[in-house]
Each structure stands twice: as C-alpha cells, then as structure tokens.
C-alpha cells in the first residue's frame, strides 16, 4: 500500500482548519486509486493549541483567563480520523520542492524527512515579546506568564511599544489591573498606582480602523490610567537589573519597571529559501489561488494564514482563504491522480473592509464590522467578556466550522477566457 500525504506545517488556527477540511472533504472526494491511501500529517512545535487571541488578558491574570480555557491538546481533536491522521510534534527545517519532502526536527531531537503529495504552509507568526509566542511547550509559555504575573503588581511604570490590537488590548488589561476602573462617569482612575504608557509609531492606533475609533480607544485607555504617545517609535530597550531603559525615535528615553515589545510580528519562515519569500519574509503566493508558484517550490504547494503574502492578517480573513486553498488542492490532486487537466480554480478576494474589534479592559472596547463602527457594549458582548473563548475556542480545535464543505460553484469559462488560457 502506497501512502500519499497531505502535509500541513503549523497547528494554529489556519493549520488546524486545513487539516480538518482535508480529512472531512478533500480526501473523501478524491478518485479511488488501487493500492494508494491518502492521509494528512500535521507538524507543529507544540502538542497543544494555544488560544493566542486571549493573550492580553492571560498575561495579566490566570484567574481571569485560566489555562484550561486557553490550551487544547491537538491530537485528540482528530480522533475521528485516526487511521488517516498523523501528528508530529516538531519543527520544519527545510523544504525540498523538487523532491517533495520536508525535513523535520522532532521534539525529541530526531531528524525526519517527510514526503508529501501536497504541502500547506501555515506556520504563522511570532512576536518580539515572549509573552505572545508559543514555543515547543505549553509549560514554557505558562511559566513565562506566571513570572510576568508575579512582577506586575509591584510595577509603577509600564511601557508598551506598539499600538496594534495586541498593544492596545494589553495596555487596557494591565492599566485596569493596576489602577482599577474609574468611578461612575469618571475620566480617570481615582487612585492610580502605576503609569502605563503606550508608544504608537503612527498618528493613530489600530491601523485598520479609522482615526475617530482610535481616538475613542485613547479615551477608554485614559479612563484606566494609560496614556498614548504618538508619532514615536521605540529604537531600543535595554534591561539592567529591575529596570528597562527605552530609547525613542525623538531622542528621549524612558525608564520602566516593565517593558512589553508589541511592535509587530515576524513570519515563521526561516526554514524556507529566500526565493520563496516576499520583501516582508512572508511566503510569496498567487494572490488569487494561494498557490506558491516559485519555480523551486514544485507542484501542489499552498500557503494559509498570517505567514502568507496575500493577507493583511487576522483570523477573520482565514474564513475566506481556507476554502480557496482546499478547493484548489482537491482540484490539483484530482488532476494528479487522473492525469487529466485540472479544473477551474477557486479564487480568493480579500475583504479589505474596516473590520476589527478590540477590547479595552474588561468592560469597554472599540471596533468596526463591515466598515461600520461597533458600539462599545457590542465589543464587550462579542469579545471583551472572554476573548471569544466560549464562542470559538473548542470549535476551532475540533474544526467544527468545517464539518460542512463551503459551497462553491465554478464559473463557466468564456470563449475569451479560454483563448487567454490557451495563449498563456
């Protein structure tokens, strides 16, 4: 019996969804080929899925965000397909597109070479701060959070570099934890215990959202005792003893008991050749089909999630991208098995509407959906209560949103379109 493997690199939101989709819909629809079995192998550095969305609250208080709500073992979520699914705790170190193999270093240090018939790269991103990046062990990240939580109550000055969602949410959670909530209709805490400063490199926070929403976010932060510095970037942060000295782009320096670097993300692509990457070190792909078309990539390679060049990032975007990748993967595999020309592609259209929600503390928040501002109470109702854990966490690890295949009707190829295909 020959085994053909759909290999998924990365076990966070995109990778988990792709693996479930392949097992439930892609493999069952492939033409039967005598003596061949199709399987899915998922490779991830950790054996657990971490609910990264809740990080800003989790770093502050394990009581408010307990670990049994934010960590989920990956392998048991695929028990329904145990004969077709393999989980490997490890890290990709090299991809050979010509030979269609991926080199893996397992958690125990063993070196493996995994052949594949199709490859999905969903390795995601890492953050500059260790508080928001999961490594090989859930215990390591939990220990990092525990150490932070021990130091936080004594902090008098906290500086956060970066004013994207993670920076803003963290500033709100930390300021409320240290300073408490303001009184009724209060514009600031009554007896603030700490100075919390958010450093924003642009003229407004939360780049996806309009300036008026950023201004509302600043008001909510001010009510919790957090201030925002605009048009200034962190040049360096040097720790010495219990203090960190932060040098800013305007030449000034600040001293903090705690400094959090939330200045952006880094794609997890160090195992790939530079020619596979764009100028931001993300995996370069066809922006419509999400195939990796670099010559050395070889056939049937796709990218999903924040690691891809096609996306501005975020979990919401993946709902549009995953069906595209999985449909095109199925189309390509059917052609591979049958020897016939592949069918029409499913195409991805980015949703560039103003769409993001951002809790600020435990009772306020800002955001927009579909280009329309969302009231603070709605932000709290959707995300602020528990950072979407009750709504989405278990379903994400179990792949519940893909129990049914996302319907798609191929568009007929016109005569002009056919001529274009023939001449291409």
Descriptive tags:
424 residues, flavoprotein, FAD, alpha/beta, FAD/NAD(P)-binding domain, FAD/NAD(P)-binding domain-containing protein, 7-stranded mixed β-sheet, single chain, disordered C terminus, oxidoreductase, flavin adenine dinucleotide binding, 4-stranded parallel β-sheet
Architecture overview:
With 424 residues, the protein is of the alpha/beta class. The protein has 2 domains: 2-128 and 265-350, FAD/NAD(P)-binding domain; 153-261, FAD/NAD(P)-binding domain (3-Layer(bba) Sandwich), CATH 3.50.50. Helix content is 26%, strand content 25%. The protein is built from 9 helices and 21 strands. It has helices at 13-26, 55-58, 138-151, 165-179, 211-223, 315-338, 376-384, 389-398, 415-423; strands spanning 2-9, 36-44, 48-50, 71-73, 85-96, 101-106, 111-115, 118-121, 125-127, 157-161, 195-199, 226-229, 234-240, 243-248, 253-256, 258-261, 265-267, 301-303, 356-360, 364-369, 372-373. It has a 7-stranded mixed β-sheet, with helices on one face. A 4-stranded parallel β-sheet has the order 12-11-10-16. Strands 13-14-15 form a 3-stranded antiparallel β-sheet, with no helix packed on it. Strand 11, helix 5 and strand 12 form a beta-alpha-beta unit. Helix 1 packs parallel to helix 6 (315-338). The protein is elongated and about 75 Å long. Mean pLDDT is 94; it is low at 415-424. One of its GO terms (cellular component) is cytoplasm. Residues 6-308 form the FAD/NAD(P)-binding domain. GO terms for molecular function: electron-transferring-flavoprotein dehydrogenase activity; flavin adenine dinucleotide binding. It holds the Pfam family Pyr_redox_2. This is FAD/NAD(P)-binding domain-containing protein.
